[in-house]
Structure formats: C-alpha cells, structure tokens
Amino acid sequence: MNKSLISLILPSFNEEKNIPMIYEAIHNQMEPLHYDYELIFIDDGSQDHTLESIQMLASAHDQVKYISFTRNFGKEAAMLAGLEKSKGEAVIILDADLQHPSSLLPAMVEGYEEGYDQVIARRTRTGESPLRKALSSTFYKVINQLVDVTLENGIGDFRLLSRAVVNDILKLSEGNRFSKGLFSWVGYEEKVINYENVSRQEGDSKWSFSKLLNYAIDGLVSFNTKPLRVCFYAGLLTLLLSLGYIGFIFIEIIRTGIAVPGYFSTISAILFLGGVQLLSLGVVGEYIGRIYNEVKRRPHYLVKDTNIHDTKDQLTKQ
Ligand code: UDP
Ligand code: MG
C-alpha cells in the first residue's frame, strides 16, 4: 500500500543560507514517520541565491518542489501558492528561517492522527524583554476586542492543516489575505502545541515596523466593518456636542450680547471637525481600496519557474 503524503510549505524570501539546513532538519524529522512527504519551497522573488539553492536541492531529492515568483509578492501569496500546489492529505506551513523548530513536526503529525484538523504551534515568549512581552499582549488584547475572529499571542502561520481545512481555505477567494484570521475563521477542531521562541540564525527578519503596522490594519479591516461604525459614532457624538455648543452660545448671545469675537472656539471647532472628517474619510477609503482590489481580480502571484507540473494544468494548456 502507498504511504500517504504530507506536504510541507516553506515561504522563502532571501533565505539562501537557510535552505539546505531546513531541508536537512525536516528530512531528519519526517524520515522516521510512516508518511511520504514533499517540501514545497516558494521563492518569493528573492534577490539572493535562494532559487539556485532550492534548485540544487530539487535536483538531488525528488521530494523537493519549488515555485518561484516573478517578484516579491509577500508571505501571504507564498503560502497561498503552496496550499494550491500541495497534494498531501495534510499540509504543514513553516518558515524557512529555522525559527519554526522542525522538532515539532512529529508531534504535529501525531495530533493529526488523533483526528485534529488543525494542529497549531504556539510560541512562548521566553527570550523576550518584559516590555516587549507586555506590549505584544496588549496588542492582542486590543485586536481581539476589534476583530470578529480570535487571534492569539504567539500563534502564527506555523501549523498543520488537514486536507479538508486546506480545501476550505482555498475556497476563500479574497484578494487581501490575512491568513491568521482565515485559519481561525474556518473553524475545525484545533490542538495547540507550545514551543520556545528561537532567534533567527541567518539572514534578517523581513518585517519592518511599517510592514507590521500594515499587517495589523489588514487584520483589522479584513475581518469586519467595526472601524466604519466607530467613525459613525464618533461623527454622531461630535455632531451632538457641536449642536449643544451652538445652542449654548446662542442663548449666551441672547442673554449678554456678542462678547469678544470667538477666535478660539471657531478655530478649535474647525480643527476638531476637520480631524473627525479626515479620520472617517481614511476609514472609508480603506474599505473602498479593498473593494477596488477585489474587483480587479488580479492573481495573487505570478510564477516565473516551477518544477510542479499538474496534470490539470497540462490539460488546459493543450
Ligand atoms: N517571507 C516571504 N515573503 C516575504 C517575507 C517573508 O516568503 O515577503 C518568508 C521568510 O522567508 C520566512 C517567513 O516568511 O521564511 C517569515 O519571515 P520572517 O522571518 O522575516 O518573519 P518573522 O520571523 O520575523 O516574523
Ligand atoms: Mg523569522
């Protein structure tokens, strides 16, 4: 009987030094298990020799597959490409920078065998400063108040998904993808495994402060329309307050006549209202931008080179 297949998806952006090491690490963990496995490396428009590194591995090992993008499309697009091309009955997503310890793979597969559809690896923040810990836990508290899906501190994209979950994720066709939210949105029974934070050995983290901020806004806006409502209430409150203020001034004028021309009140009202309007416009723009992106229906990524040739693709080409 054929062994069943597990797919491992590795988004890789400028990870030339890490590729051979991560292959070795995964191979050591997966070899003893009773599964066949495939490694799908996604070269997300790397500017170093990541692609060459992967191609060398692929020529030596049949389990190594790759998809190379024409430019950097981001980790979300890379994960999507991997999920689309994966054939395994279970799929594991992990970073190519060795920060997701491959020693967890057997435990994840075991969770899958116990019948869980999602086995999630949670990072515990041992090596971090108390300030950073406090900051990130506050961040998650605030975010969870705002979005409709639960996002948990230390939980990222490192997880195993059953074929059923992958198929459901692939049915979600939105252009702005926020996987952390999508994984939680699809539901299914989950098992959580903890691991200790590992620091990166080779290369740099690709997350700048502005990327993180954009990621947080994506998470917020992709998952509900609460910011729109906040604007609505802020606008309503401002309107009521200014009406009250106008009424008050009006009575004052009737009672005591016009005093000093109200420079201060005029300028503050203009500034305040201007601020509220700009904020609201910004939020509305955020949603309109999203609608714009959705209606364009552009592909999430473009492939320059791959060694995965689906029979389905070949049929459509002929
Ligand atoms: N990555 C990617 N495209 C990007 C940025 C990152 O494919 O535009 C990959 C990267 O190679 C790594 C994983 O996503 O395997 C996580 O990135 P990184 O280590 O920079 O994030 P961090 O660990 O700091 O959260
Ligand atoms: Mg990393």
UniProtKB/TrEMBL annotation:
It is a multi-pass membrane protein. InterPro entries: Glyco_trans_2-like, Glycosyltransferase_2, Nucleotide-diphossugar_trans. Its EC number is 2.4.-.-. One of its GO terms (cellular component) is plasma membrane. SUPFAM superfamilies: Nucleotide-diphospho-sugar transferases. The chain crosses the membrane at residues 230-251, 263-288. Residues 7-169 form the Glycosyltransferase 2-like domain. GO terms for molecular function: glycosyltransferase activity. The keyword Repeat does not apply. It is an enzyme of class 2 (transferase). It is found in: Cell membrane. Belongs to the glycosyltransferase 2 family. GtrB subfamily. This is Probable glycosyltransferase CsbB. It comes from Halobacillus halophilus (strain ATCC 35676 / DSM 2266 / JCM 20832 / KCTC 3685 / LMG 17431 / NBRC 102448 / NCIMB 2269) (Sporosarcina halophila).
